[in-house]
Design brief:
three-stranded antiparallel beta sheet
Amino acid sequence: MSDSKFVSSPLITPERLKGDRQAALSLLPDWAQHGVDLGDDIEAELSKFVVIVHGKGTDPITVELPLISTVILCELTRHGNSIVANPNRHGGEVYVKLSFARHAMDTMPISRIILNATEKKAVRQWAGPGKLDPDYLELAGAGNAKKAARAVAVKHAVELARDAGADAAEYEANLGRLFLMHDELVLKLADY
């Protein structure tokens, strides 16, 4: 599927996920076109979505993350943001990040969005860059981040939605509902 088809498809909402999950996930952005095992119970699918992320100067990374986390990333990339992999400035670690179309300096690791990291909070990844299930992530203090991850992601995504002529208020409200669903299903199960 092309990203243009995804952009014009209906929003992936919690209601659509709870109703007809196959239809809700029938059109996804190009980066998310890899394996998903859809069952009847969304709580049972926390670690079943696998994508291949290609990065500049890195080998492709296989990433496993909760289905609802993937849905949020699909929506955050609906209007032009992208998922990338790149090495940190020291060259040893590779991170999967959300790259903002107009705000390159705000590019951030997906793990910060998943755990709702705020200012001065870092996320430790215990199982390498491809394991983004919260069971393998930990919030830590004294990080260098100057911004709250989700607030930045939503702000930049809504800006692109507005500029694309989408209903920005509806889009932002849907992101809020998806994050609520995410936190109930994923962070509760990981004891956050």
